[in-house]
Structure formats: structure tokens, C-alpha cells
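QA checklist item 7 of 12: single-chain prediction sanity check.
[x] sequence parsed
[x] length recorded as 535
[x] structure emitted
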Amino acid sequence: MEQNGRKAVRYLYFAGNLVVRVVGSAIFLLLAWYSFWYTQYMLPGGRELPVDVRDSGSRNLMGLAVAAGIMAGLLLVEKYMDSRRQAVLRRWALAATLLWIAGAGIWWLSSSAHVPVGDQAFIYGGASYFIEGDYGFLDTGAYFAMHPYQLGLTAFCELLFRVAGAYNYRAFQILNIILAVGSVYLGYRVLAEMTRSTAALLAYDILMIGCLPLIFYTPWVYGDIPSIFFALLAEWMLLRYLAEHRKRHLAILALSLALAMLVRKNSLILLVAAGLTVLLHALLHRDRRILITFLLALALSYGSYEAIYKMYEIRSGIEHDDGLPIIAWVTMGMMENYGRYGWYNDYPKELYFRVVEGDKRAMAKYAEQDLEERLRAFGDDREYAELFFKQKLLSQWNEPLYQALYFNAESPEAEGGPARGSLAAGLHGEHYFKALAVCDRWQMIVYAGMLCYFLLAVRKDSNILQHTLAVTMIGGFLFSIIYEAKARYIFPYYVFMFPYAAMGFRLAAGYGAVLVRRCLKGRRAAGTRKDRKAR
């Protein structure tokens, strides 16, 4: 009986890897294909209107050829350079990459004002008001009453401001640079746990140098970069635990998952992915400790939000509000608005303030009715439904800058913005399309690398915990189908891809090298047979 149970668990584990491989490969085959032929962009300073244009297939083909050539060169380095020199080269390459991210981030931050607006302003402004004892943002109908999940990031920001000073959003931006550098390092460590290949590690360094959205998002006073850092830390701790089985790795794992959730609620997708992979691992290896650790991470994630809600209730005397019904955001994600498929259109706020006048139960019913109407429209017109979801997905996943320059629009020169004619100013003008072209090639190459990873690295008996962030990408893709569309929401997944893409290219190059050797061996054998016949 026990043996049958073990077999069932193994089959379940194999099935889990198979699902990851098939679904991930299908998603990135689609993304790589469209990234090869098309691209989308959004001009800074305008409306959130994605522009879909034909891409250059010849340039993308050249980009893939260059990537393949670089990978071949790195394989030769790995083959003919001794291990000591390889270790030195790896250290210097990583150091150069980290210095580049830090230097470029400092330049980008110091080159102009980068004044936070919109949600960013509510976050750092709310944290500052709370320090001063002003809790107006918690009142009914105010920002945090509608978006209470933002209080996690606000508490994080308030803690920082109690050290750096209220309204000091520059401190958050500097922290972003530090965490961006840390994220690059953690991605390297994740890859180093997967492989000791010098070629793969050097390929990762080269890829990260071209991750311009990570640099452009450093002034963004929001939870994106902190959540990337904590997610990569969680993945590294998972792999370190597998290597050493030490309790400290589990402790850091639980804390990092909880912090990722705290600074960015969308990290719930990471939490779900971690839960699935941890469960399969725990069942196969009878590992109770890692399962208990994940349950602790869940408790910490839930408990930290509840504690923060209660803290602000006590401090302000204002009862916690559950926020706008999530069904309203899903309904908005099914709407078309002036050629924007599923993008933000003020629907939840209009419904809340004008239609139901603050009645959230009525709001949920209205949103459900509108959602049913949209789903019927999709069912009645399949061609329109296909167009809608295709454009919705591509407007998010096929935007190489992920709105990094759109959101970080500069202030006028008189207000501390970049000097006229400077590179920083040009990135919102004549140099914008140059940056877009670089990121366009990079995105296509990274997507191709991810496709190789799902095809070659995910096997039925492969380490499921290694694929946790890859499963997160799958979850993010599926979530982006139904929720509010925004290319910025895809940015964290893009950064997660880099170590996996490097691994994918290394495996593809290895298979390619074997195939070339077999072909050459076959030709030599055929030549030998011909010589024998001639004699």
C-alpha cells in the first residue's frame, strides 16, 4: 500500500513538471514569436495607449545570431580556460555588471527630478502624513479606504521615512538602486545554484547589462523593485536549502516571501507558485520542514497585513475598510476603451462614486452584471474575443520597456529636470526609439532563452523547486488575461527571466555542440569510407 502511495506521488511530481514544461513552452513560443515579428510601445507624456508596430525580422534574426555566437565563444572559454582563471573571470564579470547597474541607476536618478506622481505620491505622501499624525487618507472614499492593500507598502515606506525624514522620496529611490543591484546579484546566485557553467554565468552578466528597464525603474517609488529583490531571495533560499538543509535558509525563505507580499500584493502569484512547488517537493521527499516553513510564510503574509491594518486603526481611530470589490477590477480588465484592451479606464471609481454612491455591495452586483454582459459579448463574437485577448496580452508582454520611460517622465528643466539636449532629456525625445530598439532585441532574446529553458531544463524528474519563479511567470501570464492590463505589471517577471534565459541558452548551446560534433564525426566517417573504396 505504501509503495503504491509512493508511486502515485512520483507520478504527481512528474505530472507537475510536465505541466510546467508544456504550458511554459507554449506561452514563450507565443511570446518569442510575436516579439520576433511585432513590438509595442507607449510614448512618454501621453495617454496609456499602446502602439503596435511591425518589428524587423532581419534585425531580430541578427540579434539571435549574435547571441548564439557569443554563447559559442563563452563555451570555448569554458572548455579551454583553466578553472582558476574561470573563477577570476566570473568574479570580475559579476563585479562589472553590479557596478554598471549601480552607476547607471545613480546617473539616471541624479540626472533629473523624477518627481513621483499618481499612486507613488499617495504612497510616500500617505506615509509622511501618517508620521505627522494626519490620517485623512484612511477616511471613507479616500485612497487607502479604496486600496487598503497599499498600506503594506506604505508601512514599509513609513519605516524608511522615520529614519530618512518625511516626504524624503529620494531615500526610497536610493533604496531602489541598492535593491536593483542586490537583485542582479541574487539572480546570479540563483543561476549558480542551477549550474556551475562559466558560460551560463557570463551569459547572465551580459544579459543583465542590457536590462535597461531595471535601471529606468529605479526612481519608481513603488513596490516593484523591492518585490523583485525579495522574490529572488526566496528562490535562492529554496535552492540553498536543497544544497545544505539548514534551518536558517528556511527562516529567510519565510521572511522573504512575506516581505515580497507586503511591498507588492501581486506577489500573491509568487506565493501560490511557491506553495505548489513546495507541496510537490514535500510529498516526494517527505520533507515536513519546508512545508511547515511555507505555512509559516502564509501566516506571516496574512498576519503582517492584519497587524498593519490594526496598527493604523488604533493610531487613527478610523475603522479599517476592505476596499473596492476586486470584481470591479476584473470587469474593467474585460473592457475595451479607445483601442485599449483591458487597460485602466476609471470604471471602478466611476461606479463607486457616481453609480452606487459608495455602496460597495451594490457596486459588486453592478460589476458582476457588467462582467456577465462582456462575457456574453465574447461568446457571441469569437473573432472579437480572440482579437481582444490577443491585443490585451501583447500590449502587456510585448512592450520591451514595460512602460519604464512612460512612467518616469521628467520634470521641466526649471524644476530640476534634465538639461535640454542631455541624454536624460533625449530618452524622452529623440533617443526614446533608440532605447526601445535595444530593449526590443533584448526582450526577444530573453524570451527565446526562456523557451529553451522550458524545453530543455524542465524534465519529469527535474528539481521542481528550481522552477518556482518559472511557475510564477506562468501564473503571471494567466493572471494578466483576466485582470487590469498594464505592461508595468510584467516588469518583475521580466527580471526573473534572466537567470533562466541564460540557463536555457547554455543548454541549447550544449545540445547544439553535440549535434555539430556528431555531424562532423559522420562526415569524417563518410570520407574515410570513400577513401577506402577509392583504394
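[x] summary fact logged: Residues 64 and 445 are 6 Å apart (CA to CA).
[ ] second reviewer sign-off
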